[in-house]
Amino acid sequence: FNSFLTALLLFLHIQYFGLFYFFQSSPLTMHPAGGQAWTHRSFNPEPSVLKFLIHTQHVYGSILKGCALMFTAVRLQLVRQRSLKAGEDPYRDHAFNLQESDRLGSERAIRDTRHYRCASITFDPDLPSTSIIITFHNEARSTLLRTIKSVLIRSPPYLIQEIILVDDFSSDPEDCQLLSQIPKVRCLRNERREGLIRSRVRGASAASASILTFLDSHCEVNTDWLQPMIQRVKEDHTRVVSPIIDVISLDNFAYLAASADLRGGEGRICNLNTDNPYRYWFNHLGQYDIHMDIWGGENFELSFRVWMCGGSLEILPCSRVGHVFRKRHPYDFPEGNALTYIKNTRRAAEVWMDEYKQYYYAARPSAQGKAFGSIADRVALRRKLNCNSFRWYLENVYPELRIPEQKVTYSLLKQGGLCLESHSTDSLGLAECKSGSSIPASQVIYV
Ligand SMILES: [Mn+2]
């Protein structure tokens, strides 16, 4: 903590003396829908748009252990100047309260939700840097900016190699161009809708750091979120790590602490992963299943794959990231929401769950018979990596998970002419056989 504080103080010190001062500006850009727009200067008088000010300072310093590090400070200010029209539903476009999100602007203080002892943990001074990959599709500008800005202001600058945005074919291509003007930010735009999974793979292949961090587009990272994750991955490159995901209210954007007692398999823990340091591991494990569409299922698939093929997945209590959980998807699924989810989860079940996939189908009977594409390459990957069975996963990784009752098989215990049978709901006794005739002889056990 001390070394980080020192770095932070050094950073502030340099910033005040302003070795280099670089101000970016660009003309006002209107959003075609007229709803939100942003500009890089705050003095444009356009009344009906959102504006934001990018105010950048690049400060080059010497620094730790003889390495030259670039310190970058970014100040983005989102100024909201338009209120929704009377009767306009603030939840319509994003399934969260846009008015409230815009009102907060691009930066705000959030409560440090970690256990108090987290603040005294120290980290290696030579942690490797990471590429942050954020994919988005028609994300609200205020939430997307808060995501990016929270990363820039709450991470030690030398740990952020770059932020790669993948615009998954949002309606307004200008978002991507404008965001690229933020220091360290690159934005790639898909030519058609690809979904979260293929967009992440695209971002990963463009990344230059050895560690990949995937982040959703409506998050706010909390104090010192990054160091614990990079530390764990640096110590063992087969670890895939996740912070605890705090809850940002979709109604009033209050930042609420999640319980620190998370256990794998509960909920959507893989919203965000810092992945393999040595890129080898991410590629070795087969990245993501790129035949999964849009959203859903990839978190289970990654979790099974990491564990079953020799790695581990950790949720780190001293790393916290807030996420706006929503009750519905605000965007379209070209193939329909339910079908896409079934296709993706069916792929995960078919490739990884062995005989236990019967429980998936029991829980989702509608998945039977639905198309899920070819899984030949994923099955081949599993064989090539010599991965453990799903039974191994259940016994070693998640023994607390209660497996639903096995299929009931009928058999009979018989002694002479007497059978061991239940006579009422709570008593079992040896008596004259009642049901003996209906049990096949092969299942009768004589004692
Ligand atoms: Mn999300």
From TrEMBL:
<keyword id="KW-1133">Transmembrane helix</keyword>
<protein>
    <recommendedName>
        <fullName>Glycosyltransferase 2-like domain-containing protein</fullName>
    </recommendedName>
</protein>
<keyword id="KW-0735">Signal-anchor</keyword>
<keyword id="KW-0472">Membrane</keyword>
<keyword id="KW-0812">Transmembrane</keyword>
<feature type="domain" description="Glycosyltransferase 2-like">
    <location>
        <begin position="131"/>
        <end position="292"/>
    </location>
</feature>
<dbReference type="GO" id="GO:0004653">
    <property type="term" value="F:polypeptide N-acetylgalactosaminyltransferase activity"/>
</dbReference>
<dbReference type="GO" id="GO:0006493">
    <property type="term" value="P:protein O-linked glycosylation"/>
</dbReference>
<comment type="similarity">
    <text>Belongs to the glycosyltransferase 2 family. GalNAc-T subfamily.</text>
</comment>
<dbReference type="GO" id="GO:0016020">
    <property type="term" value="C:membrane"/>
</dbReference>
<dbReference type="InterPro" id="IPR029044">
    <property type="entry name" value="Nucleotide-diphossugar_trans"/>
</dbReference>
<dbReference type="InterPro" id="IPR045885">
    <property type="entry name" value="GalNAc-T"/>
</dbReference>
<dbReference type="GO" id="GO:0005794">
    <property type="term" value="C:Golgi apparatus"/>
</dbReference>
<dbReference type="InterPro" id="IPR001173">
    <property type="entry name" value="Glyco_trans_2-like"/>
</dbReference>
<dbReference type="Pfam" id="PF00535">
    <property type="entry name" value="Glycos_transf_2"/>
</dbReference>
<keyword id="KW-0464">Manganese</keyword>
<keyword id="KW-1015">Disulfide bond</keyword>
